[in-house]
Amino acid sequence: MVLSPKKNKGYQHLQDIEDRIKNPFNFVDTTATKKVFALRKRIRAVAGGTSASKTISILVWLIDYCQTKQERDKLCSVVSESHPHLEKGAILDFQNIMKDRGYWNENLWNQTKHTYTFETGNKLEFYSVDTYGKAHGPRRDVLFVNEANNLEYKIVDQLITRTREIVWMDWNPSEEFWFYTEILPNRDDVEFITLTYLDNEALDEIVIREIESHKNNKNWWTVYGLGQLGVIESRIYKDWQFVDEIPFEARLERYGLDFGYSNDPTAIVAVYYYNGGYILDEVTYEKGMLNDRIAGVLKNVDKALIIADQSEPKSIDEIRLHGLTILPCQKGPGSINRGIGWVQQQKISVTKRSVNLIKEYRNYLWITDEKTDQILNEAQDFDNHAMDALRYAIASIKDPNQMNAHVHYAQSAMPMSNIPHVSDTSAPKKFATTYIPKRL
After folding, report:
1. How far is CA 99 from CA 4, 49, 92, in A?
2. For 190-214, how does the pLDDT look when each residue is reduced to its tens digit (9 = 90+)?
3. 305: closest CA among 231, 356, 252, 353?
4. pTM of the full predicted structure?
5. CATH of domain 9-207
6. What contacts 44, CB < 8 A, 6 or more positions away?
7. What fold does the segment set 241-431 form as a domain?
């Protein structure tokens, strides 16, 4: 995380930042900030690995620009693939920086338009551009394309054309996309830098150790550790589609639940059957959730069988005491790969609001041997909480062996009145509730 620099025309003031600090802040000056502020050309491209402070450093620059008195009545736009992605990412980061530095004025924030008007008259707006039509509109002075690799080139090209001054963009370099083929080789007004976690001195030792613990996974380390361009042939899931909402006709089949607490989030994923495939919807993705809170969340959504991580039987029993129908997933030798296989066979769609689930989907890899470059038949065991939850749910629907195990467990673990009706255990879908869900 980085310090929000104060106003100064030309942005040449980073040398004396520490001299002006009187009290400690959550956002501190980093090498990433200095590298971002040193860029001068029209198109300023920032690739990098995980926790490299790409987005926050660019937001700091935008805040500085908007606060500069010499810049008046300018419009800056922060765009991304979806509004949920912005809400849980760039908007939240922007608000945290402003509040941390004592700049935030609630009266200047328009929650409806997601626009902040600075005392200088400059405006910073946030909006999604998931379709080409949304790229048309009024011109702006400064553009920031957040996670640019998730947008089509024709959309970004239109946005750049309608930008008068400066264009920022950032991304994780997981694979080659239009920046490397359309922009970098064809323009002379581009500055391109790469940041890594080593440029972010604000990271604590726990995060650094966690990142460096994945050096043995070559593909992951190349992209997310070193910030270098990779070719992610080892992605486990591919070609999922993204939808705006759950169709009314979709049938709620399961909830998958992966427990977390201090270091890992608890992930709950709803699984709907629709038109020959499954739609996934992120219900919860949060750290620090006690079992009572998890049960509270599940009691306030439409009812369906819950399949949870079997490694926490006490948690499962506590949640069942709230009157919820919950069973453990079935684990054993080869169960992870079998479950992944069941998911890979399905036509999968994901709601756009499922920001954390989408992020895990894009980064969920088979481990690659660092010495031989061979892709191993072993899934990474980190940043996979929503991936585990959806796997529990879909495997329980599609795998007859798991279905039989669930029925046996249910008969021994709960009163018969709480067991979902199963008239034919060879037809796993019959295990689903017949409850017709509302739109979430």
Report:
1. 10, 26, 11
2. 999 999 999 999 999 999 999 999 8
3. 252
4. 0.72
5. 3.40.50.300
6. 36, 166, 167, 168, 169, 191
7. Nucleotidyltransferase; domain 5 (3.30.420)
